[in-house]
Every structure is written in C-alpha cells, then in structure tokens.
Write a structure and sequence with these properties.
Layout: E1 3-13, E2 22-30, E3 34-38, H1 45-53, E4 61-68, E5 71-72, H2 78-81, E6 89-92, H3 96-99, H4 106-117, H5 122-135, H6 141-144, H7 154-166, E7 172-176, H8 184-201, E8 204-208, H9 212-218, E9 221-226, E10 229-235, H10 236-241, H11 246-254, H12 270-281
Parallel strand pairs: 3-8, 3-9, 6-7, 7-8
Antiparallel strand pairs: 1-2, 1-4, 4-5, 9-10
Helix pairs in contact: 4-5, 5-7, 7-8
Bound molecules: adenosine-5'-diphosphate and magnesium ion.
Length: 285
Amino acid sequence: MTDLLKVQALSVRYAGALRPSIADVSFSLAAGEVVGVVGESGSGKTTLGLALLGLLPQGTKVHGSALFERAEILGVSERELRPLRGTLLSTIVQNPATALNPSFSVGSQIVALLRRHRTLSKSGARSLAIEWLDRVGISEPEKRMGSYSHQLSGGMNQRVVIAMALALSPRLVIADEPTSALDVTVQAAILRLITELIDDSGSSMVLITHDLGVVAQMCSRVIVMKDGAVVEAGEVDQIFHAPRSDYTQHLLASQPSHSAPAKPMPTVSASEAAVAKSTEEHGHG
Ligand SMILES: Nc1ncnc2c1ncn2[C@@H]1O[C@H](COP(=O)(O)OP(=O)(O)O)[C@@H](O)[C@H]1O
Ligand SMILES: [Mg+2]
C-alpha cells in the first residue's frame, strides 16, 4: 500500500537554538492508520507535529522530507500549504482556547470554516455545522451554535475543536495531547469520540501523547521519541510486550497505570459517563 505520509530524516532547529529539537526522524503512515508518538516532555513531539503542519515559527531551520500523498509538504510556501491545512491535513490542538476565537460564536466559526473550503450556502453550512455539533456529542446543538467559547466548558470547547478538525473530511489528523488540558473526568469520553470519528471517516491520525495507556487503546503503531530522536518504532503490541530500548522500558514502568498498556483500557461505565457529562455541562471541564 502506498503511504499517506512518509517522513524521512526530518530535523528541526529553532532560531537561536544550539541543537536541533528533533533530528533525523523517519516514519510512515498508511491510509486509515493511527500512529502514536510518545516520549516525555521536551522530547520533540509537538515540534514534529508543527513541522508537518507547516506551523513552526519563522526562522526555524527544517531539513528532510515529508511526503503527503506523494507531494512534499516541508519547505512549501504558506500560500501553497494553507488550502491543504484544515482540509486534507488538520489538527486537534491540546488547548481548545488557542484554537477558538473568543470574539465569534462557535457556530459562526464552524460555518466560516465550511464556507471557506466548500461551496455551500449560508443555510447549508449552518445545517452542516449543527449536524457536526450533534456528532461530537453537544446537546441542543442549534442553541449552542450561538455560544461563545467562554460560555462552554473545556470539554465542550474541545468537542467543537474536534468538529472543526474533522468537518472537512481530512485524510490526516495530527492530534497533539488532545485531552491533557481537560478535566480527567472527561478525558476518556473525548478520546473515545476521537477514535469513533476517525474510524468512521477512514482518516489517518498521528496521535501525540505522553500516555502509553492512550496509545494502547488507540494506536496500531507507535514511535517512541527521546531528546528529539526516535529511539524505537513498531507495532504497539510488540513494543509494549518486548520493548527493545531501555528508555521505552522506563516509560512503560513509569506509567501511572502500569498495567494499562498490556490490556485494553477499561471502558467508562454508564454512571461514570453520566458524571463526566454533567461535569462538562456545568463547565468544570
Ligand atoms: N519555539 C521554540 N523555540 C526554541 N525551542 C523550542 C521551541 N519550542 C520547543 N522548543 C524546544 O524544543 C524541544 C522539544 O520541545 P517540544 O517539541 O515542545 O517537546 P514535547 O512536545 O515532546 O514536550 C524542547 O527542548 C523545547 O525546549
Ligand atoms: Mg508537546
């Protein structure tokens, strides 16, 4: 099968930095596949995601290649990249507050996104936006169209961000710690939502996380990063059961729920889900 994404010898050095933040990173991703990127804080995970999205700050030196559907996306001008970003290639960021504009209602932001990339009437875009709010589990979606992000909980805002990331049926989603800014009570539900929607759409995903339990639950393959380099990569089952590098062993041993990677994470019970939902509705997420 042809790779949807093929990253080769990717290195990134921020302006003024003494050494690269990531060096010689290579991996590939098939259509429909979910690959996890794990590693402790500072290992270069976010830098990798930003490089693929073309969102590194100006003055950053980027070397190597990233072919997306066989087209080079590294070193491409903003003008060429912009139509791609958000449509074929999209992102779910860690903190929904950075992705949503506080001055516009969430509904108008989804409508604007849809109309920027699709030929849709205002009312057509509005219906589609409502449909997406419903799909991401937002109750009374029509009413919520007029809400501003400050009126919604973190969990609800992240649901809006997920709707925006997926509404244009991207081929590849890059999710950078998509639940770590959220209340723990809603994290499992949001992860399950992402998994379901990605599954339904047949999109591929690069899932950046420091949580190996999340990788066990959501990914088929994993890339382990340390100090900007890939220390180990392969099938999740294989790496979790027989990690080759000391660093991966250390990561596995230091997970809070050490047993989680070996077996699927317990599914949230109905009562827990109800608690999570009411917490979200009341804005503590
Ligand atoms: N804008 C930046 N300028 C300079 N250095 C940065 C910048 N962003 C991240 N770094 C450095 O790059 C390294 C990797 O960071 P990051 O990609 O954020 O790691 P992670 O997401 O795994 O925590 C760290 O040493 C960090 O300090
Ligand atoms: Mg990060």
